[in-house]
């Protein structure tokens, strides 16, 4: 792993430190994030809900809110179809919950991965219509490219509203209302503010617009709904969907995590309990990404994601506890399947595809519902874009994950001739193609990645955000770093370098895979650290080493302790420039 660090002019760091009233360490981090102006830094450090833009500036949102207002006034029948991932589940829950407050009883359906495939498919629509033809059909987190399906609904006299954030691979939908900031980017003049909202963020904006319209009419229910209380759902989808935590996403996620920490939803309380999340210790994006989110996703991967929507909507604590336990069991089953597939995928890479810039993996026995997580794991391990596909009848179907600097949407756009469906985000895509074209697609994908990356992804890089002395690693610095939260896509957690450290005692291995270590600053104050899955590579004792660390709070025995999380280490070289 190659460490990189670009020193910033000391005068600029000190000037921002004085203007913004922050330490030089925090000023350096803000400058690296492009927040060199004191006003921009203050907005970032204090992401107030009041800074959310007028929802009606989002293309088609006012018309969509007006259509919902009509449905409420005329007591219309509504069907909501949401995708089976966390963004789709949280979007469906939010919209159904708000519409119920106005006396409607919208039916909701979630595509079944094995039966319906992804998104707004005919089979999912037909299942949704079994309860009768609605007046309005709302598709969430899917549907941007579903021209035939929208026409099918319109031919039956059903109005269609699509709220989605996936890239368009075809012409815009013309038979329904579409809210998608990627399709209409630039028309509002706020494309930067809207572009990275995921679907639950767009649904939040729609609900905001609906409440504004109804409050203007003095609708009594509209004044009783506190939309801020639903930001826990927005944080779930925003963080789990790996959209950049910048701009409005940062505002929604920051406040949403606080609401989630105090949530009164029995479903979320039960889910956090089985997942081992302790709200009293604070909730972080990691809790969503690795504990809450996977359990919500597990039902859609192995069963029916409608179960997760029911859980989040329910007020029945017994039902919620039982359902959360079931989701936890699904998640353990998913983990077992993923572990097996990951081991097989790694063998394939090392034996057959180790020299390819981009890798496509497939096996008949692989479950297409879990290969997305496997794609993420092998992408991180081998530091190259990977598409992992499972068996679905005549198709090979699955997901791809990428590395920084390689936009998968652009890559697939140059090698998609055999794909029956594809789409997603620069870092994560869904893909399906006939099995007979696998070899051709594998070769073209590898070549497309090589051209796109220019041969510059062979060695992973570790960006050092700032160099610290042990004396600078204090609780005061931790309090400042807390103002940068939440960390995630687009706002990465800073990795700090600490140079010339000499360990006085050998690191302590635990559980055969990890180790703990201790170092001292110049005043003899001890600092403790942990290295996960690095027991095979421990730093030496009595030799100067450089450490790359993240700074964490460790909650233990009702105490909060500062802890260094070791990312990498190297032997110190006095001549090596930091």
Question: Secondary structure elements and their pairing?
Answer:
Blueprint: E1 2-4, H1 10-20, H2 24-32, H3 38-45, H4 61-73, E2 78-82, H5 86-101, E3 107-109, H6 113-116, H7 122-128, E4 136-140, H8 147-155, E5 159-163, E6 177-179, H9 191-195, H10 199-216, H11 220-224, H12 231-240, H13 247-261, H14 266-275, H15 285-302, H16 306-313, H17 317-352, E7 359-362, H18 371-382, E8 386-392, E9 395-401, H19 408-413, E10 421-424, E11 428-434, H20 438-453, E12 461-463, E13 466-468, H21 475-482, E14 496-502, E15 508-510, E16 514-520, E17 526-531, E18 544-556, E19 559-571
Parallel strand pairs: 1-12, 2-3, 2-4, 4-5, 5-6, 7-8, 13-14, 17-19
Antiparallel strand pairs: 8-9, 9-11, 10-11, 14-18, 15-16, 16-17, 18-19
Helix pairs in contact: 1-2, 4-10, 5-10, 5-12, 5-16, 10-12, 12-13, 12-15, 14-17, 15-17, 16-17, 17-18
